[in-house]
Amino acid sequence: MSINRKRTAMMVISSVAAAGVLLPTTASHAAEAPAARPAAAQPEGSSTISGRGRVEVITKVVELTAKLYHIVNNAIERNQNRSGYVKSLMEGSFYEAGQRYNVMVVNNANRYTSNLHGVVYDAKVSGHHGTYRVIVFESGQFTNHGDGGWINWAFRGWFDRDGGYVNFRRSW
Fold first, then answer.
1. H or E segment at 136?
2. Are the C-beta atoms of residues 128 and 86 closer than 8 Å to each other?
3. What is the predicted pLDDT for the residue at 168?
4. What is the DSSP letter of 158?
5. Closest CA relative to residue 80, chosen from 129, 7, 34
6. pLDDT in tens, 94-117
7. C-beta of residue 134 within 8 angstroms of C-beta of residue 126
8. How far is the C-alpha of 27 from the C-alpha of 40, rounded, in Å?
9. What is the pLDDT of residues 117-139, one digit of tens each?
């Protein structure tokens, strides 16, 4: 196998593992292979790898890539922009509902009162940033008695707002 094909194969394996697509059993089967015998001295720039050694090298790359993937993923989750998380819940709900209904996303720890009509979706979503209530509905009133701002609530649709009070109208 040429050096370019080897590099390409390693890049593909690394990319697949980083994307979380590699099946866990693949790495465990590769880890079961016996260790490679020490290679004889090779000229500089040579990359000849024997059959068993190839499995060991690929296993090490997959293991390292998987570890790095988890480290990066956890760092992103811990440091993710909380307001961006709330906005993405709101936007995703609005577009999944066909841009026809009002949407309210509120931090479930906030105090609020609501009188919403024509509710088509009402769920609690829990994640690293806490639990949020996502409501998709036709019309009604909502009052946030807690802290405002994008980190605690977000809404979209057809409404009039006065501070923490929002009056929602039907879109049709």
1. strand 130-137
2. no
3. 98
4. S
5. 129
6. 998 999 999 999 999 999 999 999
7. no
8. 27
9. 999 999 999 887 889 999 999 99
Q: Which pLDDT belongs to residue 31? A: 40
Q: In whole angstroms, give the CA distance from residue 60 to residue 78.
A: 27
The rounded radius of gyration (Å) of the Cα atoms in the chain is: 26
Contacts of 27 (CB under 8 A, 6+ apart): 59, 62, 63, 66
Phi, psi of 122 (to 5 degrees): -150, 110
Give the full edge-to-edge strand order of the sheet including 102-107. Answer: 121-127, 130-137, 102-107, 153-156
User: What pTM was computed for the model?
Assistant: 0.56
Q: Return the residue matching tokens 């605690």.
A: 152
| Structural domain boundaries in the chain | 3-79, 82-168
Q: Please provide the DSSP assignment of 75-121 as one string.
A: HHHHHS-HHHHHHHHHHHHHHHTTT-SEEEEEETTS-EEEEEES--E
